[in-house]
Every structure is written in structure tokens, then in C-alpha cells.
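Batch manifest, entry 17 of 40.
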Amino acid sequence: MSGHTKTLSVMVLTEDSGADAYDTVRALVKEMLKLLVPAVQTHRIDFKPLEDESARRAMHANLWKSNNPLDERTRRQLIRGIITELLKPHGFVLYHIDGDEPWSRHESSENVREFRARMIAPIEAGVRSQLPVEVETRMKRLRLLVPFYSIEAWLYQHTREARQLCAEEGCGRCHSQLADWEKNRASLDEVTQPKETTLCLKDKHNARLASSGLPARDVYEAEASFTAAVDGLLECDELTAALERTYATSGTPSP
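Output type: C-alpha cells
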């Protein structure tokens, strides 16, 4: 097997619509997968966004929750795109939506409740129509990544890089707040709209924060929303097995 042979595909979806949104979540996903299987060879994973531009619109600002009939077509396109990926022999879908609640109230997240109510059932029906015997295992390949309150609660955990960015912005006034979060990482998950609490970072540097040495193990050990997301990935045995195949020295992926 070639060192660059792709052994699985991972569709990375995000509610964020910024130019660097996909790159940000993809970088976070790579860090999560390294926690699952430390020896994973991420260059052997075919990371990809949803190609259908119309379907992507249903993700942004969680348009899939809309009750406007004009939005129904894009919602169905998004559902079809997810189903298509789940039906592939080695396809997985990791979908980021913000919890929009502090972690202490995560069980009351409207976004999570609505996603399960409006998206899971039609996706499951589509998978069942093609692979009725495998529907349960295939649906486990769809995993939600839900930061609380928002994705910045994970990104600002990279306090070293955040301090550097703060200095580069000519601000320097966020260091005390960053130091407090570093001492108590779980506290970041209790901040409402964290990107509004920093004077300079906002969401301008998200991709850099995600891809330049995020202390994923420390964030995982904080036992908040990042931990829950990683543990959720562990619930999919097929994903762990597929990640282990990325460093196999011989053979081909099993079906």
C-alpha cells in the first residue's frame, strides 16, 4: 500500500460560513483523531467539504432549521449529501454545530435538539432504503461536534498562540483573560459568546488557532464539550478501525 493511499474519507461540515471555516474545523478534527488513535496517519485520510454549493447554504447559520418552504430544497440537498457519504464503504461525516449554550446547560441546547429532530430521521431513512441491514452502524458514522457555547471555546484554548496573536494585533490586553482560561480550561465552555469577550481575537484567527499546536490533550482532560465530542467519536468502532488502518504496513482496507 502506498504511503499516500487514502484508507477512508471524512466529510467535514460546519455551520460557519467564513472563508477559513472549513480549514478551521478540519484542523480541529485532525487533533481529535490523534487523540483517538495517536499513530494515525492523517495524510492517508481524504478530508473534504460538501461540494454542492446549494447544499452548503443549508448548513450556514443552521438554515436547515428554517421553516421557510423556500429553504426546504437546500435542506434536502444537504441531507442527500450526507446520505451519499454514509453509503460509501469507508465514508464518515463529522458535522460541527455550536451548542449556543454554556456547557452547564448543554442538555437544553436547541441546536442539538433540532438537529436530531429534523435531520437524523430523514438521513436514517435514506440509509435504510439502501442498506437496511447496516443502518445502525452506518448512522454511527455521522458524528456531531458541538462546542459550547461556540467553536471559539475550543480555539481560545490555544492560549499560547492566542497571546502571540494578541501581541501581533497590538492589543496585549487579553493576556489576563487568557491566563485565567489556561488555569481553568473548562471555564471557557461557560462563557456566552466567547469571541465577544476578547478585544482583538474575535474570529479573525480561528484557522491559525486550530492548526498551530492546539493543546488537545489538555483540552480533553478539562472534561467539557471538547471531551464530549471526542468521546462521541469513540462510539463509532468503524472510525477507530479505519484510523488504525492508516498506519497498516500491508493489505487493503476491509469492506
